[in-house]
Design brief:
Blueprint: H1 2-23, H2 25-47, H3 56-85, H4 96-112, H5 117-136, H6 138-143, H7 155-178, E1 182-184, E2 188-192, H8 193-213, H9 219-247, H10 262-266, H11 269-281
Antiparallel strand pairs: 1-2
Length: 282
Amino acid sequence: MKLLVRTLTGAAYVALMVFATVFRPWTLLALIVLLALLAVWEFARITSERFVVEHASRRSAETIALVLLSLTAVALPVAMYAVCRSADINAVLAFVPYLLVVMLTFVVELYARRADPLGNLGRMALAQVYVVLPLSLLSVLAFAPLQTAERPFWALPLAVYVLLWLNDSGAYLVGSWLGRHKLFPRISPGKTWEGAVGGAVVSLAAAVGLAHYFPFMPLWRWLGLALVVVLFGTWGDLVESLIKRTLGLKDSGKLLPGHGGILDRIDSMLLAVPAAVVYLCL
């Protein structure tokens, strides 16, 4: 039963990701905003301070911080989308709401009267850098030129998803079958070097197929993208495992039955997407 629930949840997740990415540019933006909102709420929940229920001022401060963080999860993706889709320099003005929210975050902390203001500001900043910014960069993959010829807007975001999913699947299957040597036992005891290599081989094979069906980049560039995505995707998975282990958690949440939280599903993307942007820009 658990395997069935996990399979159905995974299939629904993949279907939503693919449909929202390829249907229209605005559905891709909606997907980015939805993922950012869900992920920052989850991140805020698992990293927030434990506080006494009767302290109403503390509850109010937590609520205000979460609202501000949610606003950044909307404002930054929208700004990135607007700039990447427009050649007009005035599109940079789309970042004004995001900048105002960031400044307001510091001002509000003056009045929150909490014992650990630096810790709260640090969590807010980390959520933006770790979650919101990487997801916003999907717009760069979709709409920025990135030194390529004409291509479908969804090609690069979808390619990154596919490379990550195949890497995860290949690593799991090969690791379950041949895994002997632990990759990072201090953080994730289940990962093995054999699995990591198997996942990388599957992703490189997929890159050959992508080069055939999407010839706007040569084969060597697709192979390089696959290597970058695999390496940083694996590190992204380990970083989230480090966060959960530090907090004493098995999963980041229960939003996706059989899979845990949304951060458990997008953890590899959070480093792979920025790395892909840097690779393609260079």
